Amino acid sequence: MKQILLITDGCSNVGMSPVVAAAHAKAEAISVNVIGVLDDGDLGEFGAQEIAEIARAGGGMSRLVNTRDLTQTVQMMTRKTVVQTIQQAVHKELQQVLGTSTIEALPPEKRGEVVRVMEQLTETTDLKIALLIDASASMKHKLPAVEEAIADLMLSLQARQGNSEVAVFHFPAHKHGGDCTMDVDFTNQFSKLNHIFHNLPLSGTTPTGPAIMYVLQAFDQFANRRRVDDETDGMMSDYA
């Protein structure tokens, strides 16, 4: 199960529409959640609208939160996206097998069994999360809260039974005019994520759409590497 968690505090102002980019993600079965980080002021009507539209196009959720509530929100949205995706899959299966699309329509004994399976899947399903962090100039005083929220998310993921892998990206890249860069490749060694934003240079532009597309490419590259690794393991096993 794959998801992008975008943490931002402003409107995109460079490159393609982030709403279009989020729709591309959804088409590839990658949900996009968006957290708008407030700090004393607000995002403005346009910023709040864009955040909601990105999440809607990406099949995810959106929230506007203060920095003090960021940690709780990051954990909540990560888990709720997993639950929501599993529910959608179960409802689709129920429709095909039983002709009903809601759990509530099942007999009580069957309903309890389905709920137990869903709860188990929530904890055991493999999860890949791409954390996409807005590092534009206005995020300077919010990055410590973002880093703290990521650290707490890692603790909650470690408690899951299923394999959880996380990658971290920030945008803009600040190097050679790039739109986005990868700070940590997909890993379940969460110690690699410590202090990733230490002395991070900040820039004024916000290329949110191109950054989402960059993350989609990273998902593809990760899948290709995993496929090559599996094929290599298979060839070596022939000699074992």
From TrEMBL:
PROSITE patterns: VWFA
Residue intervals of the VWFA domain: 1-86
Coiled coil residues, start to end: none
Protein name: VWA domain-containing protein
UniProt source species: Paenibacillus yanchengensis
Source taxonomy: Bacteria, Bacillati, Bacillota, Bacilli, Bacillales
